[in-house]
Amino acid sequence: MKLIDIFLMFCVDFHYVKLVTGKPINTTVTLQPEHPFVGGNITLTCSSTIQRWPEAYKTSHLSYQFHGNTRGSTVNNKLTLHALTKADKGTRIQCQAIDDLGKVSNMSNTVTLDPYYGPDNVIVEPAVTIINVTEGTALGPIYCIATCNPRCIYNWEQKWTGGFNPFPNQYISNQGRGVNVPAIHRSQTGTYRCRVDHSTGSVHKTKDISVNVQYSPKITDIWFSSDIQKNRVRTPATFIFNEEENVKMTLRVESNPDSQITFKSSLLNIQHINKYNRYTYYTSNLPSLKCEDSGNFSIQAINGIPYADTRTVNLKIWCKPRNATAESGTIGAQIGSIENIVLHVISFPKPTVRWKRVTGFTWKIEKERYDYRHKIYSKIRIRSEVDFGAYGINICNLLGCIVENITLKPQDKPEAPQNVSVVTITFRSVNLSWIAGFNGGLEQTFTVQFKTINNDKWNVLNVHINDVMTGSTIYYTLDQLRPDTSYQVTVVSTNLQGQRNTSLEFKTEVYIGRRNKYSKSDLKEKNVKSEKSAEYTTIQRNNPTFTDAYSTLQSPTGTKLASKSIKDRTDS
Predict the structure, then answer these.
(1) Contacts with 52 (C-beta within 8 Å, 6 or more apart), sequence order
(2) For residue 408, what are the β-bridge partners?
(3) Alpha-carbon distance 145 to 125, whole Å?
(4) By its UniProt entry, which Gene3D superfamilies does this protein fall under (predicted)?
């Protein structure tokens, strides 16, 4: 023991006892807990001893003083620091003991604060919450970063049914910090978790990132149903329905992300009805489809990932016959001809066709390029005028019937004037008559052409008459003719299709008369009785024109004079 120069004097005279002591020794500082965490509290305790003689003669009281930190609270020999921060790292704390005699101990040992912390600032790079990656391509690297004192321990997990399981080691790199999957599969879609543990094992934090493995769509099944056909047909080669049916289509598609569905190049209003496992079910009412839409339809699923999936179905859409069309609903025809009647009709299924009027011909039906379009054809024979008019065509299939009409109207050159003859004749004029033939379906007009036999120049006169009907008798007077002269006359009937004519010859009467010595005129009005007629014709000397034609179904009172010769009718 070190001598401290203590001496004790006993005074027997009972006046006093003198105590001798040294300064406190063995001063130390300890802390609890030994490894505090940032945010926690720490308590430092200062301990010291003092040596006195005689022992237990008198208790010594020590006080303590801490050095190096001023923000804590001191109670007796304890210093408590609240809510440690990272800034407290490196803080050096010592203490000294002071006895009641004011003697101060030596400085204690030094405690250096190094509060633990972490895991803090856990981040995943790239700094996103979800990573979209295409199946078959590389995922990563994904890094997990955190701060710890002391070091952090990293582990990667993937969420499966029931919880998280460790991610396979072959995909882990960089001392557990990184994940790298060279060729990811759709089954590896899910939540990836980085778990960061403090090296003490007492604290951990996690950071999640979602990995969405995207892949091109695949249509696995197709169902069709309608309000009439309740039982759904799964993936049919052909589906048959009527135009009036409301058809619903249901698809089962493997797709991520969800697909847009196109139906024959039209975007459908698709409803997601449910998802099961990796399948998505879609349902949609098909757009209003017509017979003309029958055929192969492409159903395409597109989600932006190469490549789209396309399925083809054949839809046969039945309909009642309609749109029976011909080049014209009215056909111009000629008597004696056979007219070919051709129509194109939309009908699914194939129609049956029959005439509503007797023609003597049946209908033939040929399918055109598409199943719903047909060519139907037959004939009509025009024997006489009564065969013109409307012809009804009855077109039927299982869904109903329609009636179309074809009208045959005459369209020909008019018939030649019939029964052209001389009614009465004088030395100066002739009354002609003829019967109007069939006009060929068009308005017809008449002209009278005449010349003397010995002359090549024809005179042409238009016959003015309205509303000529077939069989009407027309009368026409030629005036200012030469007496006792042979003439050739041609009566021509004309319409837009052409003309026909009939000719005859006649000779005027011999002139019989005398000059009036009081008259300056060459001729005097005189009634001359025709040798071939019971009526008299008034010769108007001063009238240079001809008499207008008139028509009647009755003959005049006069007796017809026979012409010298009547030529056969000829076409011009």
Answers:
(1) 19, 20, 21, 58, 60
(2) 331, 389
(3) 8
(4) Immunoglobulins
Q: What CA–CA distance (Å, rounded) separates 476 from 546?
A: 9
| Single-letter residue type at 57 | Y
| Alpha helix stretches (DSSP H) within 147-223 | none
Q: Is the pLDDT of residue 237 over 90?
A: no
Residue type, 303: N
Indicate the Cα dihedral angle 50, 54, 58, 59, nearest 10°.
30
**Tokens 């459908």 appear where?**
268
Of 115, 141, 171, at which residue does a domain stop?
A: 115
246 shares a domain with 211: yes
For 486-506, how does the pLDDT look when each residue is reduced to its tens digit (9 = 90+)?
999 999 999 988 999 999 999
Q: Rounded to an integer, what is the distance from CA 309 to the centroid of its chain?
A: 18
Residues 143 and 272 grouped into a single domain: yes
Render pLDDT for 239-278 as a digit per residue (tens, 0 to 9): 889 988 888 888 899 999 988 888 875 665 666 666 666 7
pLDDT tens-digit series, residues 283-318:
888 888 888 888 888 888 999 998 899 998 888 899
* Pair (259, 123) in one structural domain: yes
Domain CATH number, residue 552 = 2.60.40.10
Boundaries of domain holding 333: 326-410
Look up residue 458 and give its two tokens: 């024809």
Please indicate whether residue 531 or residue 284 has the higher confidence score (pLDDT). 284
Please give the pLDDT value at position 9. 40
